[in-house]
Amino acid sequence: MGKNLLCEAQPPKKGWKEIPIGGVILNAPTSLVNKTGAWRAFRPVWDNSKCIHCMMCVAQCPDMCIPVKEGKRLETDFDYCKGCGVCASVCPVKCIKMDEESKFMK
Length: 106
What we know:
Layout: E1 42-46, H1 56-60, E2 68-69, E3 72-73, H2 86-90, E4 96-100
Antiparallel strand pairs: 1-4, 2-3
């Protein structure tokens, strides 16, 4: 039979102090420098008149691009919104709909 590689002696694993630096973000927050809104294929369109300001969209936005002021949601920051549609999918009153980004290009 062949060797069982799982039974061979393994070198001891290094602790966190012995691991060389790698994959470290040294100049955080880098996302403020890199505007990622141009990646978007769909844009969330928010109807303020229907909004109940429940903040579900704010809490679930993975890019944190929905600002809040005085307990009310404001317009999405399209410099950072990637158009994932999470905000529209969690909205209980469906005041956010996703439209094709091409409709907004000039």
